[in-house]
Design a protein that fits this description.
The two termini are 17 Å apart. The protein is mainly alpha-helical. Helices cover 40% and strands 0% of the residues. The protein contains 6 helices and no strands. Helix 2 (18-25) crosses helix 6 and helix 4 (75-83) crosses helix 6 (102-114).
């Protein structure tokens, strides 16, 4: 299909909702805060992560892989990362195996996007 990436992410996001995403985030909360002003934990704080450059928080020590990743976390990159983090960002220290279910990924991306002062417009 033409413009495959955008069409695919629209289809994916249509499967989810942020209420479900908040529930899915419970499995992330052991290592990440998501509230405004939230502190880094084992993993970096995720307030405003959608739209932010990967590895860009100055008060968190990222892995070399994440520091060198040089991409913006948007709907597509976050989806690709959450499928299997260690495959998408070589050398990440995030031990989480990934979210296999498209509905769970879509929902958590929508939820994370809302946890921001400037959420990205939905595609």
């Amino acid at each position: 299909t033409k413009n495959k990436g955008k069409a695919d992410i629209n289809d994916l996001l249509a499967l989810g909702n942020s209420v479900h995403g908040k529930k899915v985030f419970n499995q992330c909360a052991a290592c990440h805060s998501v509230s405004k002003g939230g502190k880094n934990k084992i993993g970096p704080a995720l307030w405003g992560v959608i739209g932010r450059s990967a590895g860009s928080l100055t008060d968190y020590k990222y892995s070399k892989g994440m520091s060198e990743f040089a991409k913006i976390w948007n709907f597509e990159t976050m989806n690709a990362f959450l499928i299997k983090p260690k495959d998408y960002v070589k050398g990440t220290k995030m031990a989480y195996p990934g979210l296999k279910k498209e509905t769970d990924r879509a929902s958590i991306i929508l939820y994370l996007n809302e946890q921001s002062d400037s959420p990205l417009p939905l595609p």
